[in-house]
Each structure stands twice: as structure tokens, then as C-alpha cells.
């Protein structure tokens, strides 16, 4: 559902990409009841691309994400998400302006910007119409039979998603929202 795109001018190892993708997937899916199967992350090496900041040729690392925005997701939700993504980048790649990397003091490893674009007005993924923000639980319930059918037919992606939904108890059965269940599991908020 969300689509995160890194444009990086510094070389990132396969391990760093794997760790960043896993971190973003976990951050997004646990903060918003999105199954991990539907969190997309891409990396684009822009080291050979001409980029300009303030009209001057510069290099920088950026992250943009197309996300579902709506009344169920407020500014605090997005601020939390951005701070967690920034912390993941700093842990995996490294903070600093500039950070010395392999003896080159000119290489800046910082993540200059994180831009969230709440512009997803309609989308399908894996053949399913994606629900509006906040509609994940109902969407899971409506499509549960087909998700299980695909899992039982041997689709590894759907097997993993069905297991995740069950483990995380993403479908409301006791009157609690997915966010309330997360808060309860973490010992936070009114649900704890």
C-alpha cells in the first residue's frame, strides 16, 4: 500500500538495503495496521544524477513515500513515523553532516529529507482494491476468504500474510482497534 523510495547518492550495501527495507516495513505496518505484504520499498542510486539544492549542484540522500492519508492518521502519526524512519537510517547507514566514510570527509551520509505524499486516491495491489486509510480491518475481513484461498493454494506471500494477521490479531474481534491492540501489547495508552 505505501510505496517508499530512497534516492541515495552514497553506495548502500545489500545488507543496508535489506535492513532499511525491513525497518520501514516494521515501522509502517505496526504503526498503521497494514500487513507487511503491502509495504513496498525501493532504492535508486542517484550518484550519477545531477541534483541541485539552492541552485547549486549538490548530492544528498532523500526518502519519499506515497501513503494513504485520511482522518484516522494525524500529524502526530506521521511525525512519529518520520522520527522512527530517521532513527533507522541513522542506525543502519549513519548520521552526520558530513560523516567520514572510508577516508573521504566530503561524503555526506545523512538523510537530507523525508517527504510523505498523501496522494494515493485509488490503488490496487495483488489484484485487491486498497482501502482508504483507517479501513484496513474491514478490508481484511471482506477479503479474508480470498487471502486464505491463495495461502492454501501455495502462495507464499499470502501464507505469510495470513500468519501475520493472525499473530498480530489485526482483525477486530473484541471491540479493540489494531492501534489499541498495539498500544496494549506495548503497555501504552488507555488500552494498557
From TrEMBL:
Among Gene3D superfamilies, the record links this protein to: Macrophage Migration Inhibitory Factor
Q: Where is the Tautomerase cis-CaaD-like domain?
A: 1-96
InterPro entries, per database record: Cis-CaaD-like (IPR028116), Tautomerase/MIF_sf (IPR014347)
Q: In its UniProt entry, what is this protein called?
A: Tautomerase cis-CaaD-like domain-containing protein
Please spell out the taxonomic lineage of the organism that makes this protein: Eukaryota, Fungi, Dikarya, Ascomycota, Pezizomycotina
Amino acid at each position: 500500500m505505501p510505496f517508499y523510495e530512497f534516492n541515495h547518492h552514497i553506495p548502500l550495501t545489500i545488507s543496508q538495503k535489506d535492513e532499511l527495507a525491513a525497518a520501514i516495513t516494521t515501522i509502517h505496518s505496526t504503526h498503521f495496521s497494514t500487513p507487511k505484504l503491502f509495504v513496498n520499498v525501493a532504492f535508486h542510486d542517484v550518484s550519477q544524477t545531477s541534483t541541485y539544492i539552492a541552485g547549486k549542484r549538490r548530492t544528498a540522500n532523500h526518502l519519499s513515500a506515497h501513503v494513504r492519508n485520511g482522518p484516522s492518521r494525524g500529524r502526530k502519526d506521521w511525525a512519529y513515523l518520520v522520527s522512527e524512519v530517521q532513527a533507522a537510517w541513522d542506525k543502519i547507514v549513519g548520521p552526520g553532516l558530513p560523516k567520514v566514510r572510508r577516508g573521504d570527509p566530503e561524503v555526506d551520509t545523512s538523510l537530507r529529507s523525508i517527504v510523505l505524499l498523501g496522494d494515493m486516491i485509488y490503488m490496487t495491489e495483488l489484484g485487491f482494491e486498497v482501502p482508504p486509510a483507517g479501513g484496513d480491518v474491514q478490508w481484511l475481513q471482506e477479503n479474508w476468504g480470498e487471502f486464505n484461498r491463495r495461502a492454501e493454494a501455495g502462495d507464499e506471500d499470502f501464507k505469510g500474510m495470513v500468519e501475520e494477521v493472525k499473530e498480530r490479531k489485526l482483525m477486530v474481534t473484541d471491540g479493540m482497534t489494531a492501534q489499541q491492540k498495539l498500544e496494549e501489547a506495548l503497555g501504552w495508552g488507555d488500552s494498557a
